[in-house]
Amino acid sequence: MIELSVILCSYNPRYNALISTVKSIIAQKKIIFELIILDDCSQTDYFKELCNYFKKASFTQYRLVKQEKNVGTVKSLMAGLKEAKGRYIKAISPGDFLYDELVLYEFVKFMNKNNAKIGFGDAIYYGNSNGIKIYNRSMPKKLDIYLKEKYDYNAIKHRYFICGDWINGASYMHDRIMLIEYLSKIQNRIKYAEDFITCLMILDEIKIYYNPQKVVWYEYGTGISTNTKSKLYNGFLKDLKELKNILLEYHFNNKYVKKFIFIDSLKRNKIIKFIIWVLRPPRRLILKLIKKDSVRKNNINLGLLDKWIKN
After folding, report:
1. Three-state DSSP class for 293?
2. Are the C-beta atoms of residues 48 and 161 closer than 8 Å to each other?
3. CA 258 to CA 62: how far, in whole Å?
């Protein structure tokens, strides 16, 4: 039985980033898994090059799926899930890499041990535009409330909806059946931000467990939510607007939903946006001085990142 399906959703990828991501996946040890690469109608899908790469690596547990038209991340992931056979799903994007060769084995072991339907680990934020750079960032900041022995529903709702302390979408692992259930609720309304389903899961009090291990090298600044200059960023903003409608439909009287919508409306106010912009430098300085994210930056093996990037 296949324990895990890795789904790599791709759209107009950079070839080197795509191959490096694949390299980090097929290097995984001590686990039986399949790899599904789903291309969302890219101009160049690199399927021929991928087949040659898999042949040279003697890797056969893969499937290549091409969408006939561009449908966005959510529907692409749903298409990948229809192909998947694993109990668990690890979704990943070109440019993001699994941390080391035992990540999938350790993550599945964690999920089984805790009987978890959804889990997340640490993401190491990196950039590679002018040489390798590691960013002093992490999401979420507050971790103990996601630990099994200290799990706190209300604290998680507060951190998520009031503080905006969200989980990095690249660090998840999901139960396949549950992922299909929740994506089906948004697939015809949200195009890109598949990790918005976490908001519904939290409000439904589905337990999301923190796996205290490094799971992914996350390419910061290239994703739809972090690259504000991208053409797709407006699509992300539309998704965010639709998320608020969905939350109101499913949890109309929830106090966290009402506060989340109110806070988001304040952020859209031009005066408030200017005040936030002015306060950003001192806020960053304070966070740097108190070393907010220093714990998860300890013992980072940059040799692993270099290993995946060099083709």
Report:
1. coil
2. no
3. 44
* Ramachandran category for residue 41: left, alpha or beta (phi over 0 → left; psi -120 to 50 → alpha): left
Question: Would you say residue 275 has pLDDT above 90?
Answer: no
Distance CA 86, CA 36 (A): 11
Report yes or no: 170 and 231 within 8 Å, Cβ to Cβ.
no
List Cβ neighbours of 11 (8 Å cut-off, separation of 6 or more): 39, 40, 41, 42, 70, 73, 76
Environment class of 307 (CB within 10 Å of its CB; exposed 0-12, middle 13-18, buried 19+): middle
> From CA 195, how far away is CA 86, in angstroms rounded?
20
Ranges assigned E (strand) in 70-113: 88-92, 97-98
Q: Could you tell me the sign of the dihedral formed by the alpha carbons of 256, 258, 262, 265, in that order?
A: positive
pLDDT in tens, 208-220: 999 999 999 999 9
Q: What count of other Cβ atoms lies within 10 Å of the Cβ of residue 150?
A: 11
DSSP string, 227-274: -TTSTTHHHHHHHHHHHHHHHHHH-TT-HHHHHHHHHHHHHHSHHHHH
Instruction: Report which of 57, 21, 17 is spatially closest to residue 222, judged by C-alpha positions.
Output: 17
Residue 215 token pair? 């799971």
Per-residue pLDDT of 87-129, as tens digits, reads: 999 999 999 999 999 999 999 999 999 999 999 999 999 998 8
